Amino acid sequence: MKQLKLFIILFLLFLTQGTILTRLPFGTIWKPVQIVPDFLFVALLMVSFFAGSKLGMRYAVFFGLLTDLIYTSVIGVYAFSMTLAVYLVSSAARWLNLNTATVMLLTGLGVCLLQAEVYVIYLTIGLTAQQPLDFLRWRLPATFLLNAVFALAIYHPFHRFLRSMAELDEK
Amino acid sequence: MPSFFSNKKLIVLLTSLVVLIVLISYSLRQGNKSTWPEQFVQDTVGWFQYVVNVPAQYAAGFFQNVSDIGNAYKENQKLKADLADYARVEQENRDITQRYNDLKKLMNMQNSPDLFNFIKHPAVVIGRSYDQWNQIVTVDKGRLDGIRPGMSVIAPGGLIGTISRTGNFTSEVSLISDNQNVNQISAIIQNTKTYGMIEGYNANNGRLLFQKIPLSSNVKKGQVVTTSGLSDMYPSGLMIGTVTSVSTDQYGLTKAAEVKPSANLNDLTSVIIVERKAKTPGSGGTLN
């Protein structure tokens, strides 16, 4: 039951990313700055922190593939990058004491890691012509801030939900 | 880093890298055909996107209405002025159509369709890729509504892109700002005989690159660029944008210009998919 609820939450985030959030003028208010809302990935990272990295990675493969099919023209890039980023960040999280601040920092860095992976792959296959300097200067800082703020906003309710789910599994 | 990657994990990583490369080369090569699992996923998610979009559109529409009320008086004045002209323009239009058809009949050409004739399929935008590298928009009309890959798509301002993939009930539009949009558009400067190609998009300043213009041509800032109708799928006369700057290309053999798209690519809610009536050898039909 809880698993189904988690799936529905993640799927709703996936949908809003492509529908409601693209109607908000994130990318257009201030021209060179690109702000990418990657809220699904923030939620995925929290799943991997609080409900086990195996579960997080399984969801990352699924939603990565879905992102590839729906929002991009090349299959596999997001599935690979999301899974790798979830793995790396959740391994790094084991060394840290998880509280609000560290989770914010880790999710923000995780989103930047995902962006960097996808950027490198897209650059090699010629899907983007963005200059590396523009990527570092205009895309990463703003994206980091937005997603860290979103992580702060959902931290408490989502954390409680995932904890109760993990306890249910242990019983 | 031994703590991050043990031997077994390294093998998993390498295998998934190989799978990734296979998948990438598969989807770059495959072109316009989408396989049935892709279509199934696209249609299923498309339905959910449609449902999520209904309240979103209401909300967006409400704010639009509020800001419109402020402009109502000014708009009304302008509309009244336009209305006075409307009857005259309509009459003129009817006359010219009549004369055109007569002349065509005279030349025995009444059965060959015009390059600028097209059928319109209105569609609603239900999704859009959120990373700004992919410029892909999903619309709610698909194969069952007669949409085929390669059809051009217009919004109120002008041309915005081409259908790249179709599912049964939804299809994907690759915008002219997409870097993967390899479909070059054959374009012409309005009211001249100056042809060129739209080849690519500069994301930094939001301009289309209009290239291969003959060196002798007299291209000026402010001229309007439309589709020429000479390419495979685009009907002629679809507005693309206005010229903002002119230069010569890197080899000095042709001129190149930058074109500001006339449609607002950032705010797309409803679009029109255009099916060209004139057949081309490339699209499987026969020339009359």
UniProtKB/TrEMBL annotation, chain A:
Transmembrane region(s): 34-52, 59-89, 101-128, 140-158
Keyword Zinc attached: no
The protein's name in its UniProt record: Rod shape-determining protein MreD
GO cellular component, one term: plasma membrane
Keywords attached to this entry: Cell membrane, Cell shape, Membrane, Transmembrane, Transmembrane helix
One GO-annotated biological process of the protein: regulation of cell shape
Membrane topology classification: Multi-pass membrane protein
Family per similarity comment: Belongs to the MreD family.
Signal peptide: none
Cellular location(s): Cell membrane
NCBIfam families per record: shape_MreD
Keyword Manganese: no
Automatic annotation (TrEMBL), chain B:
Family of this protein: Belongs to the MreC family.
Domain Rod shape-determining protein MreC beta-barrel core positions: 125-275
Keywords for the protein's UniProt record, in alphabetical order: Cell shape
Pfam families: MreC (PF04085)
Keyword Nucleus among record annotations: no
Protein name per its UniProtKB record: Cell shape-determining protein MreC
Top-rank taxon, per record: Bacteria
Role this protein plays: Involved in formation and maintenance of cell shape.
GO biological process, one term: regulation of cell shape
Any one of the GO CC terms: plasma membrane
